[in-house]
Model the fold of this input.
Amino acid sequence: TAPSILSLIQTIKELNERQSNDLDPDDDVDDDDDDDDDDDDDDDDDDDDDDDDDDDDN
Done:
């Protein structure tokens, strides 16, 4: 099994050194993260607005 493990390690090294076909690989990941953060911020803002409305009624 040792030769097959060494072969796997070599293959992994070669794959890691190979360039990606995606022209901007980080762009997709960042967009997903940003979208999630924006959604959370919007929810917080909505909650704050609701609290303000309640204060006006009292």
